[in-house]
Structures are given as structure tokens and as C-alpha cells.
Amino acid sequence: MQKHIETLRHTLYQVIYQSHTTAGRAFDIALIISILVSVLTIVLDSVAEINQRYGELFFIVDWIFTILFSTEYILRIFCIHRPLKYIVSFYGLIDLMSIVPSYISLFIPGSHYLQVIRILRVLRVLKLVQYVNQSNQLLNALLASRPKIAIFLFTISTLLVVFGSTMYLIEGPENGFTNIPVSIYWAVVTLTTVGFGDITPKTELGRFISAVVMVIGYAIIAVPTGIITNELSREMKKQHSRLDRKICPKCRQLSHEIDANYCRICGTELPRVAAEKAG
Hints:
By secondary structure, this protein is mainly α.
């Protein structure tokens, strides 16, 4: 009996966690489709006109997906060797949060709309298949950008406090700038060029400062983008230097590790380069 259970666990593990297998790839595709359809159902259900006509159908579909995802969550715990590590992991928590709102909605109506978090589950599938290198490059670039981004955010925060305090002194409560926090809120809206218009300066000097803040806003928008782009370029160069140009004869995948003997996508044996053959 124990042997049959272990065999079942191994089979399920190959299907659920091993995306390079045929069954695993089919499972991932089915999972992505299910996630997208369930999220689309939740989004459409929030439209009053559509809800009046198809509300009952959406309710049934939502619970079908909830039961399917709940079963999948249980099977993930069952077939993995270290279930606790999965449960407390980022993706494990996302998986749990994608099904909990449906059960909460039995007591708190409307809470099932929180299930749009299911869209984050697509990241799991993308992380496990051919986009793993690209996602790692972006993550490494973001991590490398942290010090520069932190300095940038500190500088922007300082400017927001200065501009907000200045506008509070110039405009005052009579023009809607009732206190410094409200004035800082105006500075955030103006600097980011959102411009809600709920608070606007009335004095000439206030309008001049507003124009200055808006121009600065356009100038600084490109700063974090440039920082991350620069780090991403460096990371791609590092990654490229660690890869060779072996081409998989089956799936035509490029850029494998220099010492790789098998394709990282389909597992096909890679052709040996001339240097290896000579050795």
C-alpha cells in the first residue's frame, strides 16, 4: 500500500512540478487557461448589467474553479516532500489566497472578488518554464538597483516635503491647502503629472511653482527607468558570458550553460562543440 502511495506521489509530482515533461507542460497550459478564465469571470461578475443576467452562472463557474484550485492545492501539499516549505513560500501563500476568498464569501458577501489575486499564479508557470532566465535577469537587475533607487526615492521624498510646505505657506487653508500633509499630497499628484485637480493653486506664485514641479516631474520619470535598464543591461551581459551558443536539435533553444549536456527546456542531448570533441 505504501509503495502505491509513493508511486502516486511521484507521478503527481512529475505532472504538477516538472514542467519540462509532456504531462507537466499540458498541466501548466491547462492551469494558465483556468486561471485566466476564472479571473475573467470575476471581472465580468463585477459589472452590474452582466451580473444581473449571468450572476448565477458566474457563481457556479466560480465555485467550480474554487473546487479545482482547492484540489490542486491539496495535491501540491500531498506530493511534495517538504509540504511546510511550500505552504509558507510566496507561491504557496498565493495559491492559498486564490481560494480562501470564496470560502470567506459564504460569511462576507462580495469578498470573492479578492480572488483576482489568482492572476499572480501565472508567474509560477512562467517561472518554471522557458522564461526562468529572463525573470532571474530582471530580479537581479532590480536587486542591484536597490541602493540607487533608495537614494532616488529619498531625494523625491525630500522634494515633496519642500514643495508641499512651500505651497502651504503660499496658498494657505483658504485655497484648499489646509495643512502640510494635504499640501504634500498635492505635490505628489503634481510631481507625478497625474493632476487630479481636486486641489489647485490660486495665486500667481503658486501657479508658477506648480509649473516648476510639473517640469521636474517629467524630468525625473526617466531616472528609475534608466537605473534599472542600465543594471538589466549589465546582467544580460553577465548572463551571456556564462552561456554558449549550443542549439538544441529538437526545440531549437539557444544559450545553454557552457558545461550543459542536455537542453534545459526539453532535455534533449546537446551537440558537443569542437573543443569538446578535440578533448
